[in-house]
Amino acid sequence: MMYLSRGIATKRKKSRSLYVEHLGESIELSKEQAQMWKRAQFGFVYIDTPIEIATVEILVEKGVAILETDYGDIPKYYALCKCNVLINPKRKPHINRLTNQEQSIYTLIQKVELNLSVPELVFLTNKNIDTNELTYRDGLYKVQKIIYSCRAAITGEMETKMRLSRLRKQVVDSLLELLRKKYLIIM
Q1: Fewest 10 Å CB contacts: which of 19, 108, 140, 175?
Q2: What's the rounded Cα separation, in Å, for the pair 12 and 101?
Q3: DSSP H or E stretch at residue 31
Q4: CB 152: neighbour CB atoms within 10 A?
């Protein structure tokens, strides 16, 4: 099994507990839950002991983790499909330290100012969108026009179609690398 944490860690004054902000809610974690949540904050972690699995299942019930029973690229893709990918507001961008693919995805998420799903990011990468042409003012409009002119987006088939895309693995790997480098937050 593998899992990925969601949310933003926060501490409260006069409290030793870790709190995770997720979708406007502050969720308190026990010491064991906090340790497991921190392990997967910046990427997938593999687990196999009953205690680890039980703790992660509690995190999943609280909405601050995603658990996949299979391993590999496709389960990682489906896990990320259940998340919102956001720019980390606490991290100053050093774009020159990113690969071209990472720069493209980071800039796309940043300029569009919309919670793009992973299938939408794969779709836009397939379309080879030039992020330099997107301005902060019209980025959202242009991207929505591209995405929603696609029949798969309208009928809800995009997740399945993008699973078969030749660029899916590259996009997922780039997202996970941006997460590891703390450029992104998973919600």
Answers
A1: 140
A2: 37
A3: helix 31-39
A4: 15
Q: Is the dihedral of CA 185, 153, 122, 146 positive or negative?
A: negative
What secondary structure letter does DSSP report for 30?
-
Amino acid at 91: R
Q: How confident is the model at residue 55 (pLDDT cuts 50, 70, 90)?
A: very high
Cα gap 148→160, rounded to integer Å: 16
Mean pLDDT of 104-122: 81
Give the whole-angstrom CA distance, residue 105 versus residue 100.
Answer: 9
The token pair that represents 187 in the structure block: 């919600």
Mean pLDDT within 95-114: 81
pTM of the model: 0.86
Tokens standing for residue 177: 């690398």
What integer pLDDT is reported at residue 47 of this predicted model? 96
Query: Taking 70 as the threshold, does the pLDDT of residue 113 lie above it?
Result: no
Give backbone dihedrals phi and psi of 45, rounded to 5 degrees, phi first. -125, 140
- β-pair partners for 18: 11, 29
